[in-house]
Design goal:
Blueprint: H1 2-22, E1 36-53, E2 58-59, E3 67-68, E4 73-77, E5 79-92, E6 95-99, E7 102-112, H2 120-123, E8 124-141, E9 148-161, E10 182-195, E11 200-210, E12 229-243
Antiparallel strand pairs: 1-5, 1-12, 2-3, 4-7, 5-6, 5-7, 6-8, 7-8, 8-9, 9-10, 10-11, 11-12
């Protein structure tokens, strides 16, 4: 699905750029001189997890010797949505600092393939997540050409996971998959500003990557679910449409 998001974004940019370059009238000629301006964005996302495993053996009922040395976990992601606000501070004619607080919603299915001999209740975890996503990013823009202006994005973000279950006293032994509430990401992206008659429209594609381990480990140090996981961090693709 992330490939579809990228292809859709590419064709959207190409179409708008074609019509924007045909326009001889330069819209919003003084827009970029503002010290501070505001806007909002809507978008789509697809997030999964980057997983690293330890070499620790874990007890697996039904396997020879009751141990399985090579855990096998896959993640199935679905497409979610993003919505938020924008505050943009002009630092230089080609550099802006942006605060973009918003809500991000998505869901993932984590499949513990090494537990496939067990019941589905043991081998599958449904993880639905709603985040308060607060990016602080630098926007590096080229000089404006007619009614278009490409740019690059880079920065860090804070995520508050409303669905983390971190404070839940029950863990995977009771079918409760837990993650940390407070997480930090870094993100990079590319986009284009299109200057229209009444507002500036800015589609962008960015990658978001976790900096910290998001998994909340089970109480049992030999847990079949969390013991083999050395790192679990979000990685995702965001397609945002900003209106400023």
């Amino acid at each position: 699905m992330s490939k579809r998001i990228l292809i859709f974004g590419f064709f959207l940019w190409s179409s708008i750029a074609f019509f924007a370059q045909r326009e001889r009238v330069e819209y919003l000629p003084t827009f970029d001189r503002k010290l501070l301006h505001y806007g909002f964005y809507l978008g789509l996302n697809q997030n999964d997890f980057k997983l690293n495993f330890t070499d620790k053996q874990i007890p697996i009922p039904g396997s020879p010797g009751m141990f399985y040395a090579k855990p096998n976990v896959t993640v199935e992601a679905t497409t979610g949505f993003n919505v938020g606000l924008i505050a943009d501070l002009r630092l230089h004619k080609n550099l802006n600092l942006r605060l973009e607080p918003g809500l991000v919603s998505n869901s993932k299915r984590i499949i513990f393939n090494h537990l496939k001999n067990s019941t589905n209740q043991d081998s599958i975890r449904e993880v639905g997540s709603t985040y308060l996503h607060v990016p602080l990013v630098f926007k590096f823009s080229t000089d404006r050409y007619k009614n278009i202006r490409p740019y690059l994005l880079g920065g860090i973000s804070y995520d508050y996971n409303f669905s983390s279950n971190e404070g839940n006293q029950e863990d995977n032994s009771a079918s409760q998959f837990r993650m940390k509430t407070h997480n930090f990401m870094y993100e990079v992206g590319v986009g284009v500003d299109f200057y229209l008659y009444y507002f500036k429209f800015s589609p962008s594609i960015r990658g978001v990557f976790a900096m910290n381990n998001e998994i909340k480990y089970d109480d049992d140090p030999n847990s079949r679910w969390t013991a083999p996981v050395n790192f679990m961090g979000t990685r995702g693709v965001f397609l945002n449409f900003a209106f400023e």
